[in-house]
Design a protein that fits this description.
Radius of gyration of chain A: 20 Å
Distance between the termini of chain A: 39 Å
Number of strands of chain A: 15
Strand content of chain A: 15-25%
Largest sheet of chain A: 7 strands, mixed
Largest interface: A-B, 43 and 44 residues
CATH architecture of the domain at 9-19 and 72-114 and 238-433 in chain A: 3-Layer(aba) Sandwich
Oligomer: homodimer
CATH class of the domain at 9-19 and 72-114 and 238-433 in chain A: Alpha Beta
Helix content of chain A: 40-55%
Strand order of the largest sheet of chain A: 1-4-5-15-10-11-14
Chain lengths: ~450, ~450
C-alpha cells in the first residue's frame, strides 16, 4: 500500500546539506586501477598530476583510502544557493503508468547551469582560487559543464577559458551566451590557438570537433600558461565523483527520513559523474555488506561504453597528452554518430564505475534515442519538468522497470537521477516533435 | 544587525501551500471600474463574459466582494509539483552591493514554463476542463504564458491553440518547441486562420504582429468554435491577479515565520499579473489599515503604461472585440519599439493595479533596457540565477534602492518578485554581451 504521507518533494533543510563528500573508493575491495603517466607509463604521482590539475584536486584524485573529505566552508556556502536539491516522489508518473512501483527522482536541474555539474565546478574553482591561480581551462560538449564552471569561476573571480566542441558551439549559441554572461571566454574547438588544435584542423579540415580534442586543447593551454592556469574536468575523474557524492548523500538522507529503501537505482552514464555521485553512498553500504541494491547505468546505443567497450588502459583525450586510465572504453579515437545527448558521447567511463561494473556490482544497459525522447515527453507532460536528453536515458529505464512491476505486481522502489533540464536542447525536441528523429 | 539565522532559501512545507486565493478587490474602497461590453458600452454581465471565458472564470472576474476563494483540490495538487516556491534571502547580492538593506526575492522560475504564469494557467485549464470544453485558445508574446498554458492543458488533457506574436514565433523557436512538446498547436500571428488576422495582414503586409492582435485572433477562434473552446488570458484580468495571489500569500507566510516585515515591495509590471499577485496580501493589510508598505511597479521606459499612460477606458485588444477596461493605457494601437522584455510590452495595465495607482496606494517607475541588463548580469553572477529580462526590471530598482540604503545607512527590508528565468532570452543577453544593446 502506498504511503501517501510522503510529500511530492522532499526538501532537506540547509543544515542537512552534507558537510563532507563520500569517497566510495575507500570501501572498494578492488580499487580502481591507478592512472598512468602518458610518458613513463607508470602510475602517476601527485606531483606530475599537479602540473595539470590543482594541487588539492591531484591529492583527491589519488586518495582511495579516506572515506570522507570535508567540504570547505566557501563551497558549502555556495551550495546553499541551489541546494539541497529536491528528491521528488513521481506520483503523477506512477499514476500515468498505472504501476504499483514507487518512483523517486533526485532533481539536480534547479540551477542556472541546468544540471548537477555545478556540484563539482564550484569545488574545482574553489581549489584553484585557494592555490592563487589566475584561472582555469576546460572543455565542454553539450555545454552543461562549461556553464557550471563559468558560474563557479564568476563567483570566485577566476578567469575561465572554455573550449567548446565546434558543432555544439555553432548549434547551441544560447549555451555559449550563458557562459559569456558569466564572464567566460568561449573558443570553438578545434581552434588555431593550440598546437593540437592546429594539427587536427590540418588533418581534418572542417571537422565539427570532439570532446577528446577539446580536452587536449584545454590541457595544452593550461600546461603552457606558465603555471597561472590549471585544467579542470567535469566528469570521468575520481575527484569529480567525490564531489558529486553530494547527490547520493542528500538523496539517501531524504529517503532515510521516511524509512524508504530503494530496490533499484538508475542513472544515465556518459563519463559517469552523475551516476557515480548518485550511487556512491548506496554502493558504500553494498560494499560494506550493510544493504543490497541493484544499480543500472544507462547509456545511449550510439555510444555504448560499458555495454560494448573493452576494459583496458586508454587515453582520456584524443591528443593523448592526458594520463591513461583503466576503464571501459570505445577507444580514444572513437567518434560517435551524431546524436543529441551530447553529454553522453564520451568514449570512456570513469575508472570507479568501470571497476564496479567489472566486479559485477553494477549493471549497464543501452537505449535508443527515439525511445529516450518518447520517455522524455511522457515524463515532461505529467511531472512538469522538461528533462535534458541525457537525463531522459534514466527516465526511459525507470519507466521500463515500472512497467515491468505493473506486469508482476511488484511494489519496487525505484530511484533515478534527473540530472538536468532540456531548455537548451529544444532543437532536438523539435526533431522529435516533427517525427524526424532517428536512432 | 543582520539576523543570520534566516536561511538562504525559505521553503514552506507542502501543507503550507495556501488553500484559498486572496481577492484584493474585496478590501478596496474604490473598486476597479467595471469592464464594459464592447457593443453596448454598459457594464458587462456574467453571461456575456461567459461567451468568451469559462463560466467560473467569468464569475471570478466580476467578484469584487469575496476576499477568499477556495483553491480546488486538483489545482492544489498540481501546485505541489512546483510549489511552494522559495523565498530567497539575497545574502550574496547584499554583500556584493555592500548594503545594510536586507533583500529578499520570491523566485517563481523553478518550473518548466520558467515563470509565475503557471499559477493561473493551471487554474484556467482546470475550469475549462470542469466545464467540459474541448480546449482553450490564447495568445503569447515572449512565450512564458503559452508555455505555461501548454503544460496545464497537457495535464488535464485539453487541446491548446496558441497564437504567438509572429516576431517571437520566428525569433524564439525554442519557446515554440516547448509548447509543441506539451502538445499545443502554435500559430504565428497575424495568421490567415481568422478574419481579424486576414484584415491586419491586408493592412500591414509583413508585420511582425503584436500582443493585441494575437489576442483578437485567439478570441475570434474561441467565439467561433461552436462553444467547444473558450479564450484564456495570462494577465490584465482580475481573475489572473486572484490566482497569482498565491505568490504573495506564500511570500508573506515565509516572512511571517521569521518575523520579517518588508518596507518596500517591488515588481516588474507588464499587464500586472506578477506584481498584483505579489503585493495582494500586503496591500490588503494596507487597505485594512493593519500595516503600511511602499509598493513600486517597474516598467520599461519603452512601454511606460503607468508612468506615462492615461487612466481611461480602452480596449484590451487591437481588434477591439474584447471588453473595455478602465486602466492606465498607452492606447490599444500602441506599438512599442522593438525591445526584449517581451512580456512587458502590453499597452495597458490590469484595472486593479491601475486603480491602486490612481488612489496613490502604489508608485510606478520606469527603467531603461541597458540598465536592466546590467542589473541582470550583476544579479546572475552573485545569486546564481539568470533572470528573465522582465524580472530584471525589478532587480534594477531593488539594487538602486539597496544602494540608496548604503548611502543613508538604513537597514530597509526589500522584497521583490523574481518572476522567471532567462534561458529563452539568450539572444538578448548576447547583444548585451556584445555591447550592442540599446535603450
Amino acid at each position: 500500500m502506498k504511503n501517501e504521507k510522503i510529500p511530492y518533494k522532499i526538501y532537506l533543510s540547509e543544515d542537512e546539506i552534507p558537510r563532507a563528500w563520500y569517497n566510495v573508493r575507500a570501501d572498494m575491495k578492488n580499487k580502481p586501477a591507478p592512472l598512468l603517466d602518458p610518458v613513463t607509463r607508470r602510475p602517476i604521482t601527485e606531483d606530475a598530476l599537479a602540473e595539470v590539475f590543482c594541487r588539492e584536486l591531484a591529492r583527491q584524485e589519488l586518495d582511495d583510502t579516506n572515506a570522507y573529505i570535508e567540504i570547505p566552508e566557501p563551497i558549502h556556502s555556495f551550495y546553499k544557493m541551489y541546494r539541497p536539491a529536491p528528491l521528488v516522489r513521481a506520483y503523477c508518473l506512477e499514476e500515468k503508468l498505472g504501476t504499483p512501483a514507487h518512483i523517486y527522482y533526485k532533481f539536480e536541474g534547479n540551477n542556472t547551469s541546468g544540471s548537477h555539474k555545478l556540484n563539482s565546478a564550484i569545488a574545482q574553482a574553489y581549489y584553484a582560487k585557494e592555490q592563487g591561480l589566475a584561472g582555469v581551462t576546460t572543455e565542454t560538449g553539450a555545454g552543461q559543464w562549461g556553464t557550471a564552471l563559468s558560474m563557479a569561476c564568476s563567483y570566485f573571480g577566476l578567469d575561465c577559458k572554455v573550449f567548446m566542441v565546434k558543432v555544439s558551439h555553432d548549434q547551441k549559441p544560447h549555451r555559449r551566451e550563458v557562459m559569456r554572461t558569466y564572464g567566460a571566454s568561449v573558443t570553438p574547438s578545434p581552434s588555431d590557438t593550440t598546437a593540437v588544435g592546429r594539427k587536427i584542423l590540418a588533418e581534418h579540415p572542417g571537422t565539427g570537433g570532439s570532446l577528446g580534442c577539446a580536452i587536449s586543447e584545454a590541457v595544452e593551454t593550461a600546461v603552457n600558461s606558465g603555471g597561472r592556469y590549471r585544467y579542470v574536468l567535469g566528469s570521468v575523474l575520481s575527484q569529480v565523483l567525490l564531489h558529486q557524492s553530494i547527490i547520493g548523500l542528500e538523496a539517501k538522507t531524504a529517503l532515510d527520513k521516511y524509512g524508504v529503501k530503494p530496490d533499484l537505482i538508475i542513472g544515465c552514464a556518459g563519463g559517469g559523474s552523475n551516476l557515480g555521485g548518485l550511487i556512491s553512498p548506496f554502493m558504500g553500504e553494498k560494499l560494506r555488506g550493510e544493504a543490497d541494491y541493484r544499480f543500472i547505468a544507462v547509456e545511449p546505443a550510439s555510444c555504448p561504453t560499458l555495454t560494448r567497450g573493452v576494459y583496458a588502459y586508454d587515453y582520456c583525450d584524443t591528443g593523448m597528452i592526458c594520463p591513461l586510465a583503466k576503464m571501459y572504453t570505445l577507444g580514444a579515437s572513437f567518434m560517435p554518430a551524431p546524436m543529441h545527448a551530447g553529454g553522453l558521447r564520451y568514449h570512456g567511463m570513469t575508472p570507479v564505475l568501470s571497476q564496479l561494473c567489472a566486479d559485477g556490482l553494477m549493471e549497464a544497459t543501452s537505449v535508443t534515442q527515439t525511445s529516450v525522447f518518447d520517455a522524455a515527453v511522457t515524463f515532461a507532460r505529467v511531472e512538469g519538468i522538461l528533462p535534458a536528453p541525457e537525463s531522459a536515458h534514466a527516465i526511459r529505464v525507470a519507466i521500463d522497470e515500472a512497467l515491468r512491476c505493473k506486469e508482476t505486481g511488484e511494489e519496487k522502489v525505484i530511484l533515478f537521477g534527473l540530472t538536468g533540464t532540456g531548455y537548451f536542447d529544444m532543437m532536438s525536441y523539435a526533431k522529435h516533435n516533427d517525427g524526424i528523429l532517428t536512432d
